[in-house]
Amino acid sequence: MSEYEKVLLKNVGKPNSRQLATYVEGGGYSGAKRALEQTPDDVIDVVKRANLRGRGGAGFPAGVKWSFLPKDREVTYLCVNADESEPPTFSNRVLMEEDPHQLLEGILIAGYATQATVAYLYMRAEFTEQYHIMQVALDEAYNAGYFGKNIQGSGYNLECYIHRGAGAYVCGEETGLIESLEGKRGWPRIKPPFPAIQGAFGKPTVVNNVETLANLPHIINRGADWFLGIGPEGSSGPKLFCISGAVKKPGCYEGAMDFSVRELIESDRFGGGMRNGLKVKAVMPGGISMGILTADELDMKMDFSDPAKYGLLGLGTASAIVIDDRTDIRKVLRNVARFFAHESCGQCTQCREGTSWMYKMTNRVERGLGRLQDIELLGEIPAKMGMMPGLSICGLSDGAAFAIRTIVEKFRSELEDYVRSENDDAVRIALEIAN
Amino acid sequence: MAWKAIDRVNAPTEESPSLSEPLKEKIRGFFDRYPTKRAVLIPALHMIQDDHGYVGWKAMEEVAELLEITPSDVFDTVSFYSHFWTHPKGEKVVMACRSISCDLLGADRVLDECKKVLGIGDHETTPDGKYSLMTEECLAACDHGPCLMINEKMHKCVDPANVRKILEDDANDKLDIPRSNLYDGANRTSA
Amino acid sequence: MAKIILNNQEVETREGIPVLQAALEAGLNVPHYCYHPGLSVVASCRLCLMEMKMPHPKTGELGWAPKLMPSCQTPVRDGMEVRFDSDKVHENQERCMEFFLLNHPLDCPVCDQAGECHLQDYSYHFGKSESRMVDQKHVTPKKDVGPRTLLYSDRCVMCSRCVRFCDEVAGTGELCITNRGSKAEIDAFPGKPLDNPMQGNVVDICPVGCLLDKDFLFQQRVWFLKSADSICTGCSTGCSIRIDQNEDHVHRLKPRFNPRVNQWWMCDEGRFGFKYIHDKNRLTRLRLRRGESFESFRWESLAETVRYRFENIAKKQSDKKIAVVLSPFLACEEAWLLVKTIREIAPNATLILGPVPTVEQDERFPVGATNGDTKFIIRKEKCPNRNGIELIIKHFGGNTETFDAFVEQASAGEYAAAWISGGYPTEWVSKDFAKAAGKIPFKVVHDLFGSALTDEATLVVPACSFAERDGTFVNATGVVQPFARAIKPPQGCKRDGQFFYELAELEGLYQSPTVLGMMAAEIDEFKEVYVPPQLPEHQH
Hints:
The structure holds 3 protein chains of 3 kinds. Chain B is α+β, with helices and mostly antiparallel strands. In chain B, 34% of the residues lie in helices and 10% in strands. A 4-stranded mixed β-sheet of chain B has the order 3-2-4-5, covered by helices on one side. The chains are: A alpha/beta, B alpha+beta, C alpha+beta. Strand 1 of chain B pairs parallel with strand 7 (142-144) of chain C, so a sheet runs across the interface.
């Protein structure tokens, strides 16, 4: 667990951290100014060398994403993904709430690098306070000449608008976000064409996550080598980690990606240990879609490569929910199934039908009306829904599958014990009434 | 017809509010932000909901005309997003988070208490028109679960025992921060 | 041209078309719902997934990719290798079918689609016999979405074909999807129902029993229906259609794929415009005037009588003219036989194209389309064969007149005799025309319905509707298309082609291809007849 000078959260807790003056005083917007003095390709090059992997969940290198844009484009849109909806993730919220100008500076740098003409900051509807904070900061930044025409005398023009969502998890998927931006239902698009070629309004588009962009001022200021020097190879740079649940200090923390889930829970730098002497029963370390770990798997490193070794989908949003030993696993299972059933967009058959079927079963299982076949099916459906990649248009079904499948697989005996202890007649009667 | 079918052939009989001219102007004010008029739909729906309290049939039809799309396009979009109400809601909407962190910290007890205090269920409105209730997927405040949001204001670490007190507080939806009035356009001095 | 390896066999196909289309054309039964060649690709039903060989990202070695690919969304590339016959593909199909049926009601016994339902067919071929879901099904409501169409939401598989049809082909966009996830439904905005001139197609492309035609609802079980390939007579577009009938009663018309004319579509005007076929007021008796009244006449004597009377008039009243009015509803064969016969008897007979019912302008779809992006045209000429009749008139040449000039001349008493063919589904005899016809002493009126004209006729010959006839029409763009008969003519009627055949003193039964052959020997345009290709067996 290495230490380095914090950058992403350095302004958190400062008085007036939301104000431009405070931000500039701390060296803010110097990265953007430096970027504007370089060519866009130079900026892309630094970001590529730093190997800044997307912080939104998929971990795709941002610089590489930018370089997919066609050379001869006239219009480019930058969409900033602030649709943070993955339970239990709140790092974007903290970034926007505490240090809005850091994000705005990141938007300006990414906008310049991609030669974007308009940046849309897509914020989920639930971000109300954060919306006002961002809009006030944006107004300030406009007035100081960081947005609009001829930014800081560079000749570069960038408009930035905040676009508020209206309550749909799937709009965090980049093409779902684009559809939603266009005023449609947020049904993810089939790919190809990829957004870099044909994105928002049919034009080349880049979609980047808030935290990804927040890293840019620091990369420009401190260089790629500084970024590569933090954390292990392939998972370099500062990262935000969220922790919630049965720990003493739930919150959002910055660190290198070089520690384990156990350290995230126990370290005083992070979770500070379990609350009230509770024991860890399970952890969903990357947002619920990545899957679950048992108490025996806490050595998993919070980096981009280790989660796969534990049967998880990935690092995701690096946001852990710590589940204590008094928690009924059926409750976790049902909650997760309900989330995906509620948020499935309804486009692809497997996801639309599979998530709602699984929710019906988990609901019954939690109420003590489960059957062994239900546990069987709850293992089987997601295994076939998400393990076989390519079955659906976007990753939501993979997330649903990993979440539910890993819970069922790793806590199978507990689930089966519950089901076995039930009164068969009650189950039978309940089912008859249901139909 | 001998069986029940939802009527789409005839226009709805229930009354619903029209878009006022100032509201239309506010919507038009967003046209230059996007390359298509349709993209103004979601901001427009927010404005309508802020103004009318919900998005009714007439508003859908009128916003469709304003944005040069079909009313069915609007219906499609409105119904997809959980934050748009198609029936009148109360002055304040209580949004109870039910996602994993809040759930494990007792969100269901908070929700039950809200139902009990307000005497209403999900997507219902109190008879005095003051409160409506809905559940929410993750409010992104998992470090402070269980959470409740009342209009724009987040209430963190809510103890079921405090729900009544929160709901009885008149200022429970007031945000005490500088604000850029939603969709009044940017308060800029330069462009 | 492209060669691909499909299920281990080399198949020749076209570069760039969807692999699914290539597979269907190769005869494979690849299940699919959302894919329709006339609509945009959404790849959402996930039924047509296939395995594809791709280079390994690290080694570059060609092998089966772990990812299943939607075959509707993957274009054919020369040399590619794909397969639909692997366990992985079958497993996905089986899984999908289970999902589709989870909330689907088992109401096939009362469902109109039963028997032509792709949910039934695919379940049988690719699915399981029972559902493993024991919980309650979602129940979604029926919706009266339009004056002609009902929507049974609970049977929907969310393929979104209907929504895309309204957006992309009709251009009217009445249908939409509402809600999300498993609660998603097809809907229309209240008061803005599905009511465009092409809306009937949504029922055709609905792969299940969700969208149903009120006109056909509960009328027939589809397995009782017998079909004939015909051409719509509603306008000069000449859409390829299928006439579905049982016991000589036509129950519905369906469009047939025709890449040169109507693609997959037809309009409602044509689709529902057949009802006159079974009108009780149709003429069904051959009648001869005796003084003020008519008496029945025998078909056996018709040819002889007509020939004799026309011959006589031509000989004895050579100062007067003989008219042959040819309806644009006649088949080319019928017109050709008629003109040939009359011109043999009266070589100077004047050929006249009957009135061409015309509305103000063509209707183009999608609504607002111009030439380049037009997908369908409902033409202003409300008859199927003006082009064909004009070809025949031009071929025979000699005396010809426009209909207006003919009416004028007839009023002036210039005609001694006339054969007037009608066959229009709606009233077509103007007052002026009826009055003018009154000045023609001998006239045979061949028509579907009684009118001022038949009241004045010497001989009334009941005509048959298009469903009872066969022959060839030439559409607005000059495509020569054959149509087949679907039902027997009503009692008392005789198939038009047959009595024209007898009139021409040809022996045996009228067979339109035989007459077409005779015509083609004389008229080049009839040498090439266009019969659209059959859709692949498993395409829908």
